[in-house]
Design a protein that fits this description.
Length: 254
């Protein structure tokens, strides 16, 4: 499948809604992510950030609305077309989801084994390259239980990079990390965008990370059942009159 021209948005959500029974999590969520942009989805607990991410990658059909991912209408396309697009994105789930019985090298090799015809030596070379990109070149033989939380996040990003995707979606990459380690993950995201031309969609509620990495953001709110702010997070911090937006970015009680 050919890569879309750069005039096509990397990701677009139009009128997205998600309901569970009688409960509406959010409705009328519309946004667009440009190529080579770092786009952050933020908001308090229970507002639907991770649910929206799952909709964006084709894992959860929305109650209403459309998702266009790398030029593919994800919920109108045939399964084969949807799966082809899913192979062209990289996803890091909040837990990291590394296989505990595999070394870091084996974890990164797994997508290559499943989705490519590379022989074993080639898979090893690519996996070592990806570990090097995230600063884990010397940790290839370690198991997930033998590394720190920050290293596990980096290893999960390396696995997301295995198939050379143009778009990475990261769910809470800084969750549970100390401020210094979290800042290192932020710097890694910016370096990968700069050096590889990647696009990022990042789900987080970490204020320092949002201000450090985001070109634009989308803020969800549980009570409003949808979007309450969108744009440059620094502009929202400095100019928003919404008490919830101001409270989040200025650490003030709403």
């Amino acid at each position: 499948m050919n890569a879309p021209p750069l005039t096509v948005a990397a990701l677009r959500g139009t009128g997205l809604a998600q309901r569970f029974g009688s409960r509406t999590l959010y409705h009328d969520v519309t946004f667009e992510v440009a190529h080579r942009e770092v786009f952050v989805i933020l908001g308090g607990s229970g507002c639907g950030k991770s649910t929206l991410l799952r909709q964006c990658i084709g894992l959860l059909p929305p109650t209403a609305g459309e998702v266009d991912l790398l030029g593919c209408d994800m919920y109108a396309a045939a399964p084969a077309a949807r799966e082809a697009v899913q192979r062209r994105i990289g996803v890091m789930f909040q837990s990291g989801a590394l296989f505990g019985s595999m070394t870091l090298l084996e974890n990164i090799m797994l997508p290559l084994e499943v989705h490519t015809d590379l022989p074993l030596p080639g898979r090893r070379r690519v996996a070592r390259l990806k570990l090097g990109l995230v600063g884990l070149a010397d940790a290839a033989s370690l198991l997930p239980a033998e590394i720190s939380g920050g290293m596990a996040k980096r290893a999960a990003i390396a696995r997301a990079l295995a198939l050379d995707p143009p778009l990475l979606l990261l769910d809470e990459p800084s969750a549970g990390l100390d401020p210094v380690t979290s800042a290192g993950i932020d710097q890694l995201i910016l370096e990968l965008r700069r050096d590889l031309g990647l696009t990022f969609v990042v789900v987080t509620h970490e204020l320092a990370s949002i201000l450090a990495i985001a070109d634009r953001c989308l803020m969800l709110d549980r009570d409003a059942e949808g979007v309450i702010a969108a744009g440059d997070p620094r502009t929202l911090r400095d100019t928003s009159e919404d008490p919830k937006v101001r409270g989040f970015f200025r650490r003030e009680a709403a």
